[in-house]
Amino acid sequence: MEVVTAVPQESAHVSTERFSEHFQLGKTQAELDFVDVPIDGDIPLFIDPFAISQREDRWSQDCYHTILSFFERAITAIRAGDSDTARELFSHLSEPNETRFGFSEGRPRGAGIGPNQAGRLLTALSESSAVQTGFLRSLEEAELMVRNIGRDKISDLTTNVIRGHLASYTKDQCELHKVPTQAVPLGPYYSLARVHWISDYFDLPVANDQPVLLVPKVIARFDPAYEHSKYYQSFVLSFLQAEHLAANSSLVRTLKNGNKVVYKKDIEAIFPGTKENIFQFSRDHPEVLEQYREQLEQLERTKKSSVVDQEDDKLIAEALSTALASIPTGNDHASEYHQMMIGILEFIFFPNLVFPRKEHEIHQGRKRIDIV
């Protein structure tokens, strides 16, 4: 079956070979637990810390607690005026090229967090009223209220923080699909156990002399949940419309039929959607921000497919059914059967069953479960 993924058009001189093709996995994106990224380019995806926070599986919760530890330590240092700790936390951020997420053309370079970018991130957080007042509750909320911090930088920062978790996940997936790995040095990642940044060697796949970090598709997004312009338009302005109508303010207009209205464009003229204004509004009306959070949580709970699974489900199901029926019975074909079933389970049960592993030992190694 041909692998079909939502990868943007790239320059003619850039190869669009995907991870599954390079390592000859013979699987579609729907059968894989991770994003099937291009080897020599980037795919315009983000890692969404909000999506991670809403997952209940062990891997996602480990990532979430690591992100939360970094975020709380950074905010505490900034509010306390502990510039040494704050600079140390942000000085180890680097360009997350290994995931192939971003908007680069040609070979992956990352949109990246270099030393200058890391300094600007720290400055933006330090100057933010939402940070200084302790109002900011999570990393993703920085997209709503902190100037110069958008979804791309939040994704990059998240990637840096959980790089160690991604490396362990990648190793497991490579063992599962028999992808060769080698020990390579990896950029710094935040250690929850040690509460600081560390660097280490990890067994990772290498393609065209570049290590690859695989990202579970359950946490990948083309459009991360938190987005300040949507919050401003759908929640902030809608609330202010109702408030001005109730007060019969000067912004109220009477139509020919006698109905009274307040236009959003009139509110925008006196209360533009700057991040500082959004913070001030959210501080004054925390119930509106809470409604926004609850809506995002509800939307996240209803997601039933990955943003990168673009194949026709019926065609995939028919092809998998035919392939499964073609596998002969007997121990000689057990490995082939297991590999096929891993893809089938991923296809059928995603996102409720994720992070597959093969041959999990139980009872002190006396027995084993074929697929977990």
What features would you describe in this structure?
By secondary structure, the chain is mainly alpha-helical. Helices cover 45% and strands 11% of the residues. The protein is built from 15 helices and 10 strands. The chain has a two-stranded antiparallel sheet with strand order 1-6. A two-stranded antiparallel sheet has the order 2-3. It has a two-stranded antiparallel sheet with strand order 4-5. The chain is globular and about 80 Å long. The model is unreliable at 1-14 (pLDDT under 50).
Mean pLDDT: 86
Overall geometry? globular
Q: Which strands sit side by side, in order, in the main sheet?
A: 1-6
The amount of beta strand, in percent, is 5-15%
How many strands in all?
10
Based on secondary structure, the structural category is mainly alpha
Helix content: 40-55%
Tell me about the largest β-sheet. 2 strands, antiparallel
Rg computed from alpha carbons, rounded to a whole number of angstroms: 24 Å
How many alpha or pi helices?
Answer: 15
Helix and strand string, N-terminal first? HEHHHHHHHHEEEEEHEEHHHHHEE
- N-to-C span: 25 Å
- Segments where pLDDT lies below 50 for 5+ residues? 1-14
